[in-house]
Amino acid sequence: CLLSGMDTVIGLYGETIEVPCNNGAPKPKDLFMTKWKYDDGDLLTQLKDQDASVIATDKYKDRVSMAENSSLLIAAATLKDEKTFTCMVVAGADISEYPVKLLIHKAPTGVEITALATELEIGKPTQLGQCRTSDANPAASITWFKNKKPLVADGKGIIISSNVKVDEATGLTTTSSTLQYTAEKGDTAALFTCGALNTLSSPVSFTVTYPTERISLHVISKGPLMEGANMTLKCKADGNPPPTSFNFHILGKVVKVENSDSYTVTDVTRESTGEYKCSIIDNAKMEDSKNITINYLDMSLSPSGKVMKSFGEGLALTLQTHASGELKVSWTKDNGKLDSSPKFDKLTYSDSGKYEVVVTMGALIKKDSFELVVEGVPVIRRVAKRRSEDGQHKVLTCEAEGSPKPTVAWSVNGTSADESPYVNGKITHKLTIVPTVNLTVVCTVSNEHGQDTRTINVSTLFEEVRMDKQDSSDEGDTTKLVVGVIVGLLLATVVVGLAYWLYMKKSKQGSWKTGEKEDGSTEESKKLEEKIEEKLEENSQKVEV
Count of domains in the chain? Predict the structure, then answer.
C-alpha cells in the first residue's frame, strides 16, 4: 500500500466542497476501484466503468457524491466537516492512498459598534465603544480606525481589549473588541470605525468636550464702522461646549448677556470710539478687549445751491472738512473732472456751470454742489467784414459776450443770417448782404442787463469791382484809399513845385518889362496852369472811393 503526503483543502461554510483525489491527477489506465473514507468509516466506492455507490450510513449518507475526476463532493459544509478524508485507488496490483485535510472557513456576518460613549472629554480615558463581529471561522481579528487610519494600542491613550466566544451548536465564533480612548482637541470632527477582514463598520463621531482656555472679541458690521451704523460684538470661546453667557464692557459699562455670545450697539457715533471688552461670567479674568474707532466725515461747502453773480465780480469758495482719517477731495464742473479746486477772483461767463465736490475717506463718501450763473451787460468784442468766396456778397460778423444770451440785431437786412452756438457766454452772428451803395451798418446786442453797439463801414460791391476786380475783401478798400491819399500828396508836391518855379521865373523877368513880354509870359503860365488842373482832376477820379 502506497501512502502519499497530506494535502489541505479550504472550503467555505455552507457551500459544496470538492476534495480532489491525488491532487486532481488523471486516473491510471489499469484503474480497478476508487474509494473515499474517513476515520469513522467508508463513504463511497466506484468500480471501473460503474457508477459510484454510497456506503456511508451516518450524516454523510445524503451529502456525499463522487465527481467525474474521482473528487469527493460534500454538500452544505459545516465546521464538523473539518476532518481528514482519504482517497484509496486500486490499480493493477497497487493500492495507493491520498489523505486530504479539509478546513472550513466563514467570513463574519457583519461588523458594528455598540455601547457608544455619549461624549469624550479631553485628557480623560473613556470607553469609546465596543466593536462586535459574529459567525466567523476562524475567529475574526478586529482593527480600530480613526479617520481611516488604524489605531495601535499604546497602553496609555489607546487601550484595546478583545474577547472571542464560540457557538456550541455551530462552532462559529463571535469576536468583541473594546476601545478605551483619551481624546484630544483635534478629535472634535474625527470619525471612528472598526473592521474585520474586508468588512468595515459604519463610521461614528463623538462630541469632544473640553474647558474654555481662551476667548476672543470680534466686531461684526456691514462695511466700515461709521456714524449711524450698528455694531455687533461677538465673544468667541474655544471650549466645547462653549459658554452661553458673557459680560460685555461697553465704554466702561458692563452689560450681561445670557444664552447668546453677541451684543449689538445701535446707531454708533464718534463718541462711541474706545475700548470694548468681553469676559466669561463665571471667570472675569478670562477676557479679551479691542480698541474700536468709529469713522466719521463732516463736510461743509459755501456757497451752495444756485449762485447768481455779475461778470467781473469775485466769489469766495470755502470747503470745510472734519474727519477721522485721511481725505481725498475731487471737483467736477458739468460732470467734467477738474485738476484742482476752482478759484473765482474775477468771474467770466465761462465760469458758469454746475460744480460738485466729492470728499472720500475709505468707503465714506460725501458730496455737495452749487450752480454758478454769471450774468452781465453784453459787450461786442469784434466786428468784421469780408467778401464771400463767390465774390457776390459781403459777409458781416459780430462777436459778443454776455449773459443771459444776447439778442443780435443788424441795422440792415441780409439774404441769410447764421448764429453760432451760445457757449461760455459767447455768441457769433454772421449776416450776408449785397450792398448796392456805400453803407454804415450797425450791430446791436442786448439782454435784460443792457446793450452794446458797433458800426462797420461797407462799400458798394459794384464800385469795388470796377476799381479793382482782383480785390476779394473789404480790407482792399482801405488799401485803395491809402494809395489814393499818397498819390494826392505827390500831386500836391508837384503843384507846389510848379508854383515855386513860376514865381522864380517872374522874379527874373521883373514886373517892369514891356507889356508884350508880360502878356506872352502870362499866356504861357495860363496854359501850364490848365495842364496842371487837368492832371489833378484825372488823378482825383482815379483815387475816388
Answer: 5
**Residue 543 counted as domain residue:** no
pLDDT tens for each residue of 221-280: 877 788 888 999 999 998 888 898 999 999 889 999 999 999 999 999 999 999 999 999
Mean pLDDT confidence for 143-164: 94
CATH number of the domain enclosing 227:
2.60.40.10
**Which of 323, 324, 342 is CA-nearest to residue 332?**
342
Calpha distance 333→245 (Å, rounded): 57
Those residues whose C-beta lies under 8 Å from the C-beta of residue 478, and which sit 6 or more positions away, are none
pTM equals 0.50
Average pLDDT of the residues of the chain: 85
HSE of 370, CA atoms in CB hemisphere, 13 A: 21
- Write out the residue range of the structural domain in which residue 205 sits: 109-209
Residue 149, classed as helix, strand or coil, is strand
113, three cell numbers: 459598534
Instruction: Name the DSSP class of 393.
Output: -
CB within 8 Å of 318: residues ≥ 6 apart: 300, 301, 302
Structure-derived torsion over alpha carbons of residues 342, 346, 350, 355, reported in degrees to the nearest 10 = 30
Whether the CB-CB separation of 300 and 229 falls below 8 Å is answered with no
In a domain, 180, yes or no: yes
What does the pLDDT average to over 121-129? 93
- Specify which residues 419 forms β-bridges with: 429
User: Is residue 163 within 8 Å of residue 179, measured between CB atoms?
Assistant: no
Determine the pLDDT at residue 65: 94
pLDDT for res 540? 39
Q: State pLDDT tens for residues 157-200.
A: 999 999 999 999 899 999 999 999 999 988 988 999 999 977 88
Cell numbers placing 155:
497602553
Which among 357, 381, 355 has a CA at the least distance from the CA of 367? 357
Per residue in 366-386, pLDDT tens?
999 999 999 999 999 999 999
